[in-house]
Design a protein that fits this description.
Structural class: alpha/beta
Strand content: 25-35%
Number of strands: 19
Shape: elongated
Mean pLDDT: 94
Largest sheet: 7 strands, mixed
Helix content: 10-25%
Distance between the termini: 22 Å
Low-confidence stretches: none
Length: 320
């Protein structure tokens, strides 16, 4: 059959590409299905973003990643992973979402938004960037609210509220402020997050201390309206004028899809049950790679410490 594979990889991010490189090297018939563009999550990172890691720690398949900066940029990463995929002639189908997976004897029937596939093994490398944590407040569905920050120029000369205190929120606050926005931050905790990039954290702390950026700590947004926002603070309710809300509250993996496949989740972080040596889940033939392996604990795994999953999984498949 034309769409009959040894391995079907769901997710065309860096880890999905790493799995494909290993599969190709092992001589497996494989395909990647990606519901968005190539390395879709990185594409949706802010345009000026720098990675925390150095370029060599983002490399896959032994292909060198040469960067002009000590910390590579989003643009450099997009170019690197595109070149890896093109030069290796990886078999990847973009803008094709997996709708359902059913097991028929020892073979999986995978239905996508475009075609049907048969595969003896499946790797889930779906990351966690698709589902934002919601504020769950009135007005969150207004057009002025976004959970994805892209470019600072859009917010020039506007009143911007940034929700959150980790890297994404800090980058959004600093960049929009530098483009002339009047920026206010709402932080649930008592300080800016400790995991914020070490060369950026002093910048945001100084901007807050000097009053250039207003920050409400130990606070939360309680309501959003067309021209203003309500904030619950330790000193009581505060209402401020507002044009845009950038809610950098984090993202979660699509655990509902895992449950639909029969994959067991355990513990506080809903961690998928898997064999640590082979990364095979409790469903024989379905493997997990990348950040998805950590469940809701999305700060445990990154590209640099999960790219090894690819070789582990392909070796396990070949040893069957």
């Amino acid at each position: 059959m034309a769409n009959d594979y040894d391995l079907l990889i769901i997710g065309g991010g860096p880890i999905g590409l790493a799995c494909a490189l290993e599969a190709k090297k092992a001589g497996l018939r494989y395909v990647i299905l990606e519901k968005g563009c190539l390395v879709n999550s990185i594409y949706y990172y802010p345009v000026n973003m720098h990675f925390f890691s150095t370029s060599e720690r983002l490399e896959i398949g032994g292909v060198p990643f040469v960067s002009n900066n000590p910390k590579p940029t989003r643009t450099e990463a997009l170019e690197y992973y595109r070149r890896v995929a093109v030069d290796a002639a990886l078999h990847i189908r973009l803008f094709e979402e997996v709708i359902s997976v059913q097991k028929e004897d020892a073979v999986f029937l995978v239905q996508s938004s475009k075609e049907s596939y048969y595969a003896r093994n499946i790797i889930l490398a779906t990351g966690f960037y698709d589902i934002p944590y919601k504020l769950n407040v009135p007005g969150e569905d207004l057009p002025k609210v976004t959970h994805y920050y892209k470019d600072p120029h859009f917010y020039a000369m506007q009143k911007v509220l940034v929700v959150g205190a980790q890297n994404s929120a800090v980058d959004a606050a600093l960049e929009t402020w530098r483009k002339g926005a009047a920026v206010t931050m709402v932080v649930r905790d008592h300080e800016i997050g400790e995991r914020v990039k070490y060369w950026v954290r002093p910048d945001i702390v100084n901007r807050i201390e000097e009053g250039s950026i207003k920050a409400y700590f130990n606070s939360r947004v309680s309501a959003i309206r067309a021209r203003e926002v309500d904030i619950e603070t330790p000193g009581g309710l505060v209402t401020i004028a507002n044009d845009w809300v950038i809610a950098m509250t984090g993202y979660e993996p699509n655990l509902a899809f895992l449950r639909k496949l029969g994959i067991e989740l355990s513990g506080q972080y809903q961690t998928p049950v898997l064999n640590e040596e082979t990364h095979e889940s409790n469903v024989p033939g379905i493997y997990l790679a990348g950040v998805i392996c950590a469940g809701m604990n999305t700060h445990r795994l990154f590209i640099e410490n999960s790219r090894v999953h690819a070789a582990q999984i392909v070796e396990a498949i070949c040893n069957k």
